[in-house]
# Entry
Amino acid sequence: MTRDETKEILMTIQATYPNFKPEDKTITINTWFTLLKDYDRKQIGVALRDFIAHDASGFAPSIGQLTTRVEEIFGKDNEMNELEAWGLILKAIKNSGSNSQEEFDKLPLLIQKAVVSPRQLQEWALDEQWDKHSPFYQNGFMRQYRAEKGKFANRNILDCKNQIESKNQAQLEDKNNARRSWSDNASPMPEDFMDKLKQRFASNVM
# Structure
C-alpha cells in the first residue's frame, strides 16, 4: 500500500465511524502506513468492508483487526482461505442438483462442517434466484467456515497443551520412580560404622 492509499482507508473509516477522531492525523497516517505498507490495497479494502458489514460494536477497526481479517479471508502460507473454500463450493454446486451426496463427499472436512449436509448443496444448486441470493449464501458460508477453522485451531492448541502436560507428568513420574528405586536399593550402613559415628559425635559435643 502507498501512503495515499492508506489515507483513503482512513478516510473511509472516519466517514463510517464518527467516533474515530485521531488527535494528530499526520502521526496516525504515518503509523498506519508503516504497518500496512506491505499489504495489498485491495485486500485491506475487502477486509474493511467485511468488518463494517459484520461488526456490531460501533467502534472503528484497529490495524490488527484489519490484518487479521485479511489473513482470515485470503489465508496465509498454504492454508486454504475463505475465498478458495467458496470456490470449491461453487464447483460442487454445479453437479449437486442430483448428485449432492457425491459432491459433498469430495469436499475437505472443514468445508463439509461449514456446509453441514449434502442437502444444503442441493438447495443452493436448485435455487432459481441464485444470482440474487448467492452473495448472502457466500457471506454465511464464509462466516461458518471461519468458525470451523477457529474450532480446529483451538483443538490443535488444546491437544498440544495436553501432550506437553502428559509429557511433563511422565517425566515427573520417572524421576520419582528413580528416586524410590535408589532408596529401595540403597544398602544400609553397617552397625559398627553407625556406632563409630555416634561415638565421634558424642565426643565432639562433650
